[in-house]
Write a structure and sequence with these properties.
229 residues, 59% helix, rod-shaped, single chain, alpha+beta
Length: 229
């Protein structure tokens, strides 16, 4: 009986050691990896937002320089923006004078003041001042560049604001950070589940191998004892 218990105990300890080690590594490495991925993704998205905002601002500026009436230019911009998935990412144009949307993917928002959004704006920079100001105030003060918008319902967006030269227009590009967080959360769960499966795939063969080695070793010892007797 002692001979049968020892291999079983060794197999169990081996299984727990291998499986537990992989799970611990997964629980510590996965959150760190996801955090790094999120920061990297947000930086990439901020750069894409900046490129898109500058591209639309340059397009509007060139069309105005060509002598195209402003109402026709806004109609062209509206045609470019209409149909975008506002729940994921979108662009719009705001008149800084009255802080109203003059172009927006959702036509029902046209003419609406951005103050109705009740969003707080924080500029993305190295400054230690992280206090939010009303989005319409940031627009009126002509604060441009990258930042974040925070809404009363807890939603947030990465935003980039670019002025159209020689106008009161500001092109803003938005990316829904809630979508980013939900996708990364799904990835985190998938990685943890993967660590669980890999742990089982490695721990079971390792425990069986340990059990087999332990049995062979004990049989060899028993055989030597019988010969010595």
């Amino acid at each position: 009986m002692p001979t049968s218990r020892k291999p079983a105990r060794l197999a169990l300890l081996t299984f727990l050691a291998v499986f537990g080690s992989i799970l611990l590594v997964g629980f510590f490495v996965v959150p760190y990896t996801i955090t790094k991925m999120e920061k990297r993704y947000l930086l990439i998205q901020a750069d894409l937002n900046a490129r898109q905002a500058k591209s639309l601002a340059n397009f509007a500026s060139l069309r105005l320089e060509e002598g195209i009436p402003s109402n026709e230019v806004t109609a062209e911009l509206q045609a470019l923006l209409t149909g975008a998935d506002a729940d994921r990412g979108y662009s719009c144009v705001v008149d800084r004078g009255n802080t109203e949307f003059i172009c927006h993917p959702m036509t029902m928002a046209l003419g609406m003041s951005i103050s109705t959004k009740e969003a707080g704006f924080i500029k993305m920079e190295s400054s230690t001042d992280n206090s939010a100001i009303p989005w319409e105030e940031a627009m009126s003060r002509e604060i441009f560049g990258a930042g974040s918008l925070f809404y009363p319902d807890g939603a947030s967006e990465i935003v980039y604001m670019e002025a159209v030269p020689n106008t009161d227009w500001t092109v803003t590009t938005h990316e829904n950070t809630a979508r980013v967080h939900s996708e990364l959360e799904a990835l985190r769960k998938a990685m943890i589940f993967g660590a669980f499966v890999i742990g089982l795939l490695l721990a079971i063969p390792s425990s069986l191998a340990a059990r087999a080695v332990s049995r062979r070793h004990e049989k060899r010892i028993e055989a030597e004892q019988e010969r010595s007797e």
